[in-house]
Design brief:
The structure is a single chain. It contains no helices and 11 strands. The chain has 132 residues and is mainly β. Strands 1-2-3-4 form a 4-stranded antiparallel β-sheet, with no helix packed on it.
């Protein structure tokens, strides 16, 4: 079993064995101290898993995404800073921009889907309504 102190302004101690991790922390707060404690069976915490989509591994039109909406079909719509709109249906990516679709501007900062399923895009050049 290993034990030790946690360096820095956080005061605490920990113990690690093959089956258990014990941790007690005292963290200075604005008013007083905050106390944390845990007793886990594993020394390897479960971290969230992420999938990152960018221009190098997907059909995303730009790496700066400023708006996201999901329609009733489950299609994901991404408004980008300079690439227009990217639609992802779970398999295929489609890009709509000012040159291939009549979008008012490639700078998209808002997406709304109304009760009828119409897609509205706020851009630096005005509002565009999407017609499939």
């Amino acid at each position: 079993m290993k034990t030790g102190k946690i360096p820095g302004k956080i005061k605490g101690r920990f113990q690690v064995s093959k089956k258990w991790l014990s941790l007690i922390l005292i963290v200075p707060a604005i008013v007083g101290f905050i106390f944390f404690g845990c007793n886990k069976k594993s020394t390897k915490p479960k971290l969230p898993s992420w999938t990152t989509y960018d221009t190098s591994n997907s059909g995303l039109a730009d790496d700066v995404v400023s708006a996201i909406a999901i329609d009733a079909s489950g299609d994901k719509w991404f408004g980008t800073w300079v690439g227009g709109i990217s639609k992802f249906d779970g398999v295929n990516w489609t890009t709509y921009n000012a040159s291939n679709s009549g979008l008012a501007s490639n700078f998209v900062n808002a997406i709304a889907i109304d009760a009828s399923g119409n897609k509205w895009f706020g851009t630096f050049g005005g509002v565009s309504k999407f017609h499939e």
